[in-house]
């Protein structure tokens, strides 16, 4: 079964009860990086027990089924809202974890964005993780990064982790944003901002320049776009299946219920 088919099966399956393991973190600092980026620094003793936590790993913020931040231990069998975020920075000595929450854009605000807009220092929230995103395949001729607005922090991490000589394209569907964000990148990585030219991320990706050679790709897309994008990237762009990573971000609905997973 192809990777995109596995993802489709995962997200289309009905939630099933599962053991939940969560830990509490407290908002320590809130920084307004730009109009569209709110940086939250979370801390707590739980970080001490997560030595594998590192920049680029993924944690999930947990919310009640009505969208309120979960501020109690998750129960063993409980339907919760989970929202994944890329760890931008972490300090296991100071017990701090930093995430960036994207605000605005064309996708509807879900519980995480609503919470980030209202979060206060000292507020607690339950978190799960970390999980690790697969690294981009190194033995490729060029790299393609693409995504919707919520995927920008993950794209920023991938850009920072690339070898300085890497060449490729970054395509970001930033429709609804009033500014393009400054991203640190290798000199030969070209960033293409949609700026309202195309209606969807797939349309943007189909209209970007493609360097010659075999690519590796990381894409953060809407759930409904995963299957067609995976097929197009493999068949039309020539991304080998083992060099393709595609992750589901915000769906078109404001809420999507996931069962708490261990």
Walk me through the topology.
Layout: H1 3-12, E1 23-34, E2 37-43, E3 57-63, E4 79-91, E5 96-102, H2 111-118, E6 124-132, E7 142-148, H3 152-161, E8 167-173, E9 188-193, H4 201-205, E10 215-221, H5 226-237, E11 244-248, E12 258-259
Parallel strand pairs: 7-8, 7-10, 8-9, 10-11
Antiparallel strand pairs: 1-2, 1-6, 2-5, 3-4, 3-6, 4-5, 4-12
Helix pairs in contact: 1-5
Question: What would you say this structure looks like, in words?
Answer:
The protein has two domains: 14-130, Beta Barrel (Elongation Factor Tu (Ef-tu), domain 3), CATH 2.40.30; 142-248, Nucleotide-binding domain of ferredoxin-NADP reductase (FNR) module (Rossmann fold, 3-Layer(aba) Sandwich), CATH 3.40.50. Helices cover 17% and strands 34% of the residues. The protein is built from five helices and twelve strands. It has helices at residues 3-12, 111-118, 152-161, 201-205, 226-237, and strands at 23-34, 37-43, 57-63, 79-91, 96-102, 124-132, 142-148, 167-173, 188-193, 215-221, 244-248, 258-259. Helix 1 (3-12) packs antiparallel against helix 5. It is globular. The two termini are 24 Å apart.
């Amino acid at each position: 079964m192809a990777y995109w088919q596995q993802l489709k099966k995962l997200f289309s399956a009905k939630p099933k009860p599962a053991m939940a393991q969560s830990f509490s973190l407290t908002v320590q600092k809130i920084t307004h990086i730009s109009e569209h980026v709110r940086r939250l620094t979370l801390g707590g003793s739980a970080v001490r027990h997560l030595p594998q936590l590192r920049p680029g790993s993924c944690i999930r913020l947990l919310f009640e089924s009505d969208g309120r931040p979960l501020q109690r231990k998750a129960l063993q069998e409980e339907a919760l809202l989970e929202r994944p975020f890329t760890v931008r920075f972490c300090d296991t000595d100071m017990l701090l974890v930093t995430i960036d929450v994207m605000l605005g854009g064309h996708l509807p605000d879900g519980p995480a964005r609503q919470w980030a807009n209202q979060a206060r220092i000292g507020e607690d929230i339950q978190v799960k993780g970390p999980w690790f995103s697969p690294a981009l395949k190194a033995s490729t001729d060029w790299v393609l990064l693409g995504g919707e607005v919520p995927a920008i922090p993950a794209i920023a991490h991938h850009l920072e982790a690339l070898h300085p000589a890497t060449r490729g394209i970054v395509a970001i569907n930033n429709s609804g944003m009033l500014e393009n964000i400054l991203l640190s990148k290798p000199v030969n990585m070209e960033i293409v901002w949609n700026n309202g030219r195309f209606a969807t991320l797939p349309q943007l990706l189909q209209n970007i320049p493609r360097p010659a050679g075999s690519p590796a790709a990381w894409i953060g897309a809407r759930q409904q776009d995963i299957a067609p994008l995976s097929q197009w990237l493999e068949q039309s762009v020539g991304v080998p299946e083992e060099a393709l990573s595609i992750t589901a971000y915000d769906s078109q609905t404001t809420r999507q219920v996931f069962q708490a997973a261990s």
